[in-house]
Specification:
Pfam families: DUF247. Keywords: Membrane, Transmembrane, Transmembrane helix. By secondary structure, this protein is mostly helical. It folds into three domains: 29-155, no CATH class; 164-301, no CATH class; 314-343. The chain has 15 helices and seven strands. It has helices at residues 13-24, 42-45, 73-86, 92-105, 107-111, 123-132, 145-155, 173-178, 213-226, 233-244, 248-256, 266-271, 288-298, 301-313, 317-343; strands at residues 164-165, 182-185, 195-196, 201-204, 207-209, 260-262, 284-285. The strands form three sheets. The protein has a three-stranded mixed beta sheet with strand order 2-4-3, covered by helices on one side. Strands 1-7 form a two-stranded antiparallel sheet. The N and C termini lie far apart (110 Å).
């Protein structure tokens, strides 16, 4: 507007720059190299809040103020007594002093294992938590492994090479079965050991699906998402099974082959893997090569045609008889045609 003077705001460039530099160099910005225990991100937690919260015991500092877990503190004190007695020390009080001193020596290292955004207590309270407050499958309910190693010492009398960039969807179990791929349960030390044999048999270790299975998978997936450089093998496993299972028919195929032991109702089992990896990011898909092999097989029309013929015409004696009769009739027709040509 005419006649108005422009307002000029003086900016203290030096002060603002110094403040931003301090923020960028702050201790909570960069993740310590030891960091391995995280608070579950809200984007993952919102899908099932209960899957990340302990039911009985607070292990580590994250849930130490939860009043619903206070009743079990006496149980942990009792186990601390048993831990000291296990050392066969003639002087339990002296042994307790030694343990406290030992944990105190690694307190700083243990503190670096927790995510920077965690609000940790002072040194004395932190050592007490590590010693006394040891549901262990939850991402937020952990203590550093080095603490367990120190306690053990003081009280003690196959993943295949995989992972390539990009997801590779595969057809469902029903479509694969129609395409000539058979499913076979295989014993393995790892549920991740899934492979396609040359005779078109997909070998999969068995998996028990029950109420607690979701808790285990969600916390492992959350750990993979939080830890820099961690291979997303469990996330990839969930994606692979979500590809295999689209309908109740797919679940039944895996159950009939002994691959899935389902303790849920059929509808919940069908949706189980679909909801596990929502909002996750997979940089290196662990089953990329396996998925390529499966898709290459599916592009060949002959196995699907063979399966169709066997299933519809060769499963019953009547079907076999009709096929033999058809072959004989065709041969007779060919012989008759040849004889007619020769006579002419």
């Amino acid at each position: 507007m005419a006649g108005e003077r422009r307002q000029h705001v003086a900016i203290d460039v030096v002060s603002l720059s110094s403040s931003l530099l301090n923020m960028m160099e702050g201790p909570n910005l960069n993740m310590p190299p030891r960091c391995c225990i995280f608070l579950t991100p809200k984007i993952l937690r919102r899908h099932n809040e209960k899957a990340y919260a302990p039911d009985a015991f607070s292990i580590g500092p994250f849930h130490r103020t939860d009043q619903s877990l206070k009743a079990t503190e006496k149980v942990k004190v009792k186990y601390l007594q048993a831990l000291i007695r296990r050392s066969s020390s003639p002087n339990p009080e002296q042994k307790l002093d030694e343990i406290i001193k030992g944990i105190g020596e690694i307190e700083r290292e243990a503190r670096e294992c927790y995510a920077p955004q965690a609000f940790l207590p002072n040194e004395n309270e932190f050592v007490k938590i590590l010693l006394l407050r040891h549901d262990l499958c939850l991402l937020e309910n952990q203590i550093p492994w080095l603490v367990l190693e120190r306690l053990f010492v003081m009280t003690s009398a196959r993943l295949g090479v995989g992972g390539t960039f990009g997801l590779q969807p595969i057809p469902s179990a029903r479509i694969l079965e129609e395409g000539g791929i058979k499913f076979q349960r295989v014993k393995s030390s790892s549920i991740l050991d899934i492979q396609l044999r040359n005779d078109h048999v997909l070998e999969i270790p068995p998996l028990l699906i029950q109420e607690t299975t979701e808790v285990v998978f969600r916390n492992l997936i959350s750990y993979e998402q939080c830890l820099p450089g961690c291979r997303p093998v469990i996330t990839s496993y969930a994606i692979l099974f979500n590809n295999l299972i689209k309908t109740a028919k797919d679940v039944n195929i895996l159950i009939e082959n002994g691959i899935i032991h389902n303790w849920l109702n059929l509808e919940d089992a069908t949706q189980f893997f679909n909801k596990l990896y929502v909002d996750t990011y997979v940089k290196g898909y662990f089953y990329f090569q396996l998925s390529q092999e499966i898709n290459l097989h599916c592009r060949n029309p002959w196995p699907k045609l063979r399966t169709f013929l066997v299933r519809n015409y060769l499963y019953t004696p009547m079907g076999i008889s009709s096929q033999i009769a058809a072959v004989v009739l065709n041969l007779c027709g060919i012989i008759q045609a040849v004889c007619s040509i020769v006579k002419k």
